[in-house]
Amino acid sequence: MSTDRLLLPISDVLDMGISVAGMRVTRYPTPLYEVFFRLRMNNAGDSSIRLKGRKWLLQDHSGETRIIEAAHVFNQDPILAPGAVFSYSGCQHFTRQPVKMELRFFGENQLGEPFITPALIFPRYCFRIPGT
After folding, report:
1. How far apart are alpha carbons 68 and 118 in whole angstroms?
2. Distance CA 36, CA 126 (A)
């Protein structure tokens, strides 16, 4: 499902946070920047929701921007009742030093109405090269 073609209502029902984030750099045979993270999402609304996918906006130091949309959230479509928490760990790869990561989730509410979340913007400390 491409969210570019749809005008989905923005819903801030998810209280999202990054509990762990850091970067690892390997330079051989070619540079690879890996940003590791752990996300936590709490359904702060008063009805159940189903997460059906995610949309990443990734930008590196050269200005190259990638947009990645994927169905499911780690091969799941989790249903979160009010107050329920869903968390997962992941990693994004870059060939140049990353400078920006944003993440949105899209899903539907209990009535089947679609929504997309506001962007979760990763803080700049996530992109510091270890040891600098």
Report:
1. 16
2. 8
